[in-house]
Structure formats: structure tokens, C-alpha cells
């Protein structure tokens, strides 16, 4: 019975997130940070490495990017760490909301074009078109990873 109640609660929470927050739970509407990009229109590839260091920090390298409004970028992401890591691209506030949800449901699966979760040693891609100028964030939202340093900034300059 507890499992059924927990499952129903999770479904309700997922539905409310989808309605309230474009870009989560499979919604592919335009977000403040942009829209999923067409790989054939990518004008730049940014190689990103995710890893843990000997001091226990969890990091992205590089941890800052500058792109232009309207630019389509392919993020080629490699997890060189020993743990699973995520790359989630969004507004800082949206990542904070998502991070709080991940604390409650750490094994939550993602179906978002602005996010990818990779096992140790795996590589993946996100292709993204930055349709708005501003400062955005990319982060690993697995509990404890953000707090260990796994976040960075994307500055999108106006055309």
C-alpha cells in the first residue's frame, strides 16, 4: 500500500512539474535558456569533462562558456569520473528547484533535451540553440554534487 501511495504522489508531482516548468518531465517548449538545437546547424562544439578530483571536489572542465544569442552549440560531454554525473542546462533558479526535487527523488529519470546523465566513462551530446541573451547555469543536480562544486556558467551575449 505504501508503494502505491508513493507512486501516486510521484505521478502527481511529476504532472505538476510538467505543467509549471517547461523543459522538465519531457516538455520540450522554449525555455529562457533556449531550445533544443538541430545538430546539422551547430556552429560550434564545446568539449566538457565531468570528474572528481583527489580533494573530493566534483567539477566540470571548463566551467564557463561564452556563446552568442542565436548560436547552436553541440556540447560533447565526457564523464571521466568514477561516479554518475549530469549536465543540466537552465536558469540558475530552475536548477535550484530541480536540485531540491532531486534531493527528494535522487534516482529520478530525466527526459529533457537540456540534460544528460552519464555513467562513469561514458560520453554523450546535447545540441542547444541559445535563443536569449543572459547568464545561465549548467550543473550536476545529483544530491551532493552541486555542493561539491559541480556547476558553471554560460554567458550568452546579445547579437
TrEMBL record:
The keyword Metal-binding applies. Residues 52-156 form the Blue (type 1) copper domain. Residues 1-20 form the signal peptide. CDD domains: Cupredoxin_like_2. Gene3D superfamilies: Cupredoxins - blue copper proteins. PANTHER family: AURACYANIN-B, COPPER-RESISTANT CUPROPROTEIN COPI. This is Plastocyanin/azurin family copper-binding protein. It comes from Neoaquamicrobium sediminum. The lineage of its organism: Bacteria, Pseudomonadati, Pseudomonadota, Alphaproteobacteria, Hyphomicrobiales.
